[in-house]
Amino acid sequence: MSPTPSARTVRLRGIDRATTSLDDFQNVAIRLSEAGSSRRRFFSSSTASIAESAQPLSKSLAIQNEHFTGTVSFPSVESKRKAITVKNTGGWVLDDKFDSLTILYAPDTADLDICAVHGLGGNAFDTWMATSKMWLRDLLPGSAPFERSRIMTFGYNSTLVDKKSNDRLRDWADELLRQVGYVRSSAEEQERPIVFICHSMGGLVGREAMVRLNTVPNKFDGVKLEHCGLLFLSTPHSGTTQADWNDFLVNLAELTIGVRSHEIVDQLRSFNPASVDSEESFAVMRKIPPFYCLVEGDKTKIAGRDRN
Question: 13 has which bridge partners?
Answer without folding.
Answer: 93
